[in-house]
Design a protein that fits this description.
Shape: elongated
Largest sheet: 6 strands, mixed
Strand content: 15-25%
Distance between the termini: 58 Å
Structural class: alpha+beta
Helix content: 40-55%
């Protein structure tokens, strides 16, 4: 591998590090998670409360006492795993979110008055959805949308804010889709919107727009949140400088999941720091207050899984050779921590840390070896390759180089959008096939009337009529020829539909880019249609004007004693020109409605209408009848 990408990555990291404050910022975090939707009929999640508890533990080792607030309802299993959080956690209601924001805002204001910087983290794990282009998170009692989030961030008023969202459609929470706009966005769109709406805020988002949040029982966590937390604890620190940048986290998560066969299971994320910088610091690990640091030697490559004393999986690491790594672990988690090495010569063994004090460092050699429990080795087939690729400076440089040569990703495309696009293309193809036949008939009639009116004028014999006839003939042939060329250059709906089906069948094709490419070509078709209609309308008015002039000349000739044959020929030529003009105007104004209406519906209708559905939702002491859908 060339050393240039590696040197460039290290240079960028060093340059960014030079701008770090002399002391780490004071950390505050509001962690919100919710297993259950406030809307009846949506399936409950299993591990969103576990994710909330784990995020709380991670940020608690960075924040000052009381600087981390947890809003969630812990289920029975999670209460057993995190008994210390039972009296701390409160329900994830809108009132509690507002109250927590107010309390944290007061503490952040005190920190800023003392001359220190404050970083605020808003973390959400749970259900998300989108309504009319506006994304929202589902609290226990209501929706929490982009305006609510912006109001919360303004109220907190930290030096920097970081938004971490693990939910479906979280993309639309920070980047609502405007009415009539595209159904997708690119990184350039996201960057522009964040600069306008949230200039001092960084975002780390799951870009999934599906109706599923992928959880894994082996992790007891959502896949996205598990990867992100491992990165926050230090696994994403590619250059070992003690800080996690947005670029490092994006590369870490992408590389960790790149070997998963099914693309639906791969966590995809969008990362952009405050000031629209990917090199901005997401987390400064120097802020750790009560952490245990696990140090791994630089020389050997190593792949590890870390579990606490209760067997709960906290992090996975796959370190490149030649780079050191330091993981920060919550002190409560580190006591009895078990580290399993995967894929090495001693993979059948685990190392257990019996006891360790907070704010200390330990080497892997200080762990006591023991056999790996059989239950710890089972994983689901689709997620077996999570963290299969080593991460470090070389992987980061290769990822950045590969991404720079790729087309930009596309966000906001869901399975429903893809199905809707398929249905639209099928309808579009059928409509255009029928319309092509009609246009061929109208094209022929326009050409015949153009030639007929011209020949009638030429047949009159006088120089004026011949000049007018040849002019009309030349204009008609030119415009009809241009019309024919435009028609031949338009998108072929059948070919576009076949390309879409081929892309759907290709597992390596990015569904978002496929839909975006088709969307672009449909809009190009629409622009071609409008251009042709403007030309046809112009030609129609010219023919109408020519017909009116010719008929007027015929009537003038009748009054001035012109021959009957000359008057009749002029009247016929004028009538033919009028018929041709009306034909062009009809084509320009009456044949576009089906296609334009179809594309207008795609651009403006926010989602496929859901059919009404009746379900029975079990509740304590009975059950509840739920009806949902679009009515």
């Amino acid at each position: 591998m060339s050393l240039l990408p590696l040197a460039l990555a290290l240079t960028l990291s060093t340059t960014a590090a030079e701008g770090l404050p002399s002391s780490p910022p004071v950390v505050f975090a509001l962690v919100v998670s919710n297993n259950h939707s406030y809307a009846p009929g949506r399936a409950a999640l299993q591990y969103a409360d576990d994710d909330g508890a784990k995020y709380h533990e991670v940020f608690s080792m960075l924040a000052e006492p009381g600087g981390t607030v947890l809003l969630t309802v812990l289920d029975t299993d999670t209460r057993r795993l995190f008994p210390a959080l039972v009296p701390v956690a409160r329900a994830s209601t809108f009132a509690n979110v507002t109250d927590a924001a107010r309390t944290l805002a007061e503490r952040i204001a005190e920190v800023k008055r003392s001359g220190r910087e404050a970083d605020f983290y808003f973390v959400f794990a749970g259900h998300g959805d989108v309504d009319k282009g506006r994304g929202f998170l589902e609290l226990a009692d209501r929706a929490f949308d982009s305006e609510d989030l912006r109001a919360l961030l303004r109220q907190v008023d930290a030096t920097r804010a970081h938004v971490l969202l693990d939910s479906c459609n979280s993309f639309f929470v920070v980047s609502p889709r405007k009415a009539g706009g595209r159904r997708y966005a690119t990184p350039a769109d996201m960057t522009q919107q964040l600069a306008e709406r949230l200039p001092a805020v960084g975002v780390l988002l799951s870009t999934s727009a599906e109706a599923e949040v992928y959880e894994w029982s082996e992790l007891q966590s959502g896949v996205f949140s598990h990867v992100v937390r491992a990165g926050l604890m230090g696994a994403a620190d590619a250059d070992a400088d003690g800080r996690i940048t947005y670029a490092e986290m994006e590369a870490f998560a992408s590389i960790a999941a790149q070997e998963i066969p099914n693309p639906l299971f791969r966590p995809r994320l969008f990362a952009l720091g405050p000031g629209r910088s990917t090199q901005a610091t997401l987390l400064d690990l120097r802020a750790a207050r009560s952490a245990v640091t696990l140090k791994l030697d630089a020389a050997p490559p190593v792949r590890l899984t870390l579990r606490d004393a209760q067997g709960l999986r906290w992090a996975d690491v796959n370190k490149e050779a030649g780079v050191p790594l330091a993981l920060r672990l919550p002190s409560g988690v580190a006591r009895g921590m078990e580290v399993e090495r995967l894929g090495g010569p001693d993979a059948a063994w685990a190392w257990t840390l019996e006891g360790v004090a907070p704010d200390t460092s330990v080497e892997l050699a200080g762990f006591a070896p023991g056999p790996v429990p059989a239950a710890a080795r089972g994983v689901r087939e689709q997620l077996r390759q999570l963290f299969a690729t080593p991460f470090g400076p070389r992987a980061l440089a290769a990822y950045e180089q590969a991404r720079s040569s790729e087309q930009p990703p596309v966000y906001g495309i869901s399975l429903a959008d893809r199905e809707r696009m398929r249905q639209q293309l099928e309808t579009f193809s059928a409509v255009e096939r029928d319309r092509s036949r009609t246009q061929t008939i109208l094209f022929g009639s326009s050409l015949v009337t153009s030639i007929g009116s011209s020949l009638l004028l030429v047949a009159q014999g006088d120089s004026t009529s011949r000049l007018q006839g040849y002019t009309t003939l030349g204009l008609g042939v030119f415009i009809n020829g241009a019309d024919l060329v435009q028609h031949l250059r338009k998108e072929d709906p059948d070919a576009l539909l076949q390309e879409f089906h081929a892309a759907e069948a290709d597992p390596a094709a990015d569904p978002g880019r496929t839909v975006a490419r088709v969307d672009y070509r449909l809009n190009r078709f629409l622009a071609q249609e409008r251009k042709v209609r403007r030309q046809l309308e112009t030609l129609g008015w010219l023919y109408l004007a020519s017909g009116v002039v010719t008929v007027a000349q015929a009537e003038h000739g009748r009054l001035t004693g012109a021959s009957h044959e000359e008057v009749v020929n002029r009247e016929l030529a004028g009538l033919a020109a009028l018929v041709g003009g009306v034909s062009y105007l009809l084509r320009a104004r009456s044949t576009e409605s089906a296609t334009e209406h179809l594309l207008h519906q795609w651009a403006t209708d926010p989602d496929v209408r859901r059919l009404p559905r009746v379900s029975v939702v079990p509740t304590r002491g009975g059950a509840m009848l739920a009806v949902d859908g679009s009515f």
